[in-house]
């Protein structure tokens, strides 16, 4: 089905032309900071040097009496900071809050030319994206912006999950979605108070031992988020936008944080939120392909020639589909290498070890 003829037209006279393809920029971590917290705000220039995205948070975690200070703090930080290749995002307040309209009316003219993405919380359906889309177009036209600000929807309500496909396809502004486990758990009445990760009560149990009814029965913890994450990844992939894991709230449990991020990475997510500096390195480690994976992928692509047919490499079948899987890994590695020379060197060394030095891969 064709998109409507005006799908790629500006929604206001004078607004910038919408993008036709969302740029695939490194976004292994979306680093949240509180712009009303002077100590945290002072760290933004340094954090921006090591994070792919910094996000000035104006919504949850910012108390009601700090909403205006956070908004003004973000304006000051954005105006004073050279972010280089690092993206600047913000999370505005929810559409039904008294702060959402003031957020947009203040931010777009003041820092719209530096804002790459606006994250919209608690999105319920396409109607929420349509509202933001038109309003942003009018504000961009008034501010004389030359490029559109993209929109990222937070998937954190039951109705949002039920409508996830229409949300992804609602506007050419859509950059991606993040899964918000805290609000989603509350909205679904899930009985977990954790922010991401598993729950010891969500298990499956092995059958009783037929020879010993008293023998303990092994249990296996399941993943509370598998279904939702898969729905989000499929909807994003359908529309060519990007899926992310949201927060992992147990900041001291860096091991389980890495597990949650790796589940998301393996399922097709391109990044996750970092709530604390310690989580930046975890996300960087997880969402950057391993050098050995990149070398393997390059080897498969090299040995598969024109990318069709089937061959055996190290005992594993490779064919047209596995070449596409390998291209996903190599394209991500090459995008990350462009801004991370250490990573580029590690990938080249691993590739040379497999394909021979100077393989030109
Ligand atoms: C969670 C925190 C409040 C913890 O802060 P703090 O108690 O200061 O931790 P530490 O003492 O370990 O901090 C060590 C130093 O690091 C600085 N710090 C801490 N967090 C950040 C940060 N995000 N960016 C930059 N710097 C940070 C501290 O200032 C300390 O500095 P120093 O004293 O000079 O050494 C805090 O981490 C925090 O507020 N994080 C952000 C939380 C947040 O944004 N929450 C909202 C997103 S999750 C959500 O909304 C749920 C989602 O929507 C859903 O529904 O699922
Ligand atoms: Mg939330």
Automatic annotation (TrEMBL):
Binding site for substrate: 91, 156
MF-aspect GO terms: lyase activity; magnesium ion binding
Protein's name in the database: Putative malyl-CoA lyase/beta-methylmalyl-CoA lyase
Domain of life: Bacteria
Binding sites annotated in the UniProt record for Mg(2+): 156, 183
The keyword Magnesium appears for this protein: yes
Domain HpcH/HpaI aldolase/citrate lyase: 29-194
Any one Pfam family match given in the protein's UniProt record, by short name: HpcH_HpaI
Residues that span the membrane, as ranges: none
Any Gene Ontology biological process: oxaloacetate metabolic process
Keywords assigned by UniProt, alphabetized: Lyase, Magnesium, Metal-binding
SUPFAM superfamilies: Phosphoenolpyruvate/pyruvate domain (SSF51621)
Cofactor(s) named in the record: Mg(2+)
Biological source species: Candidatus Neomicrothrix parvicella RN1
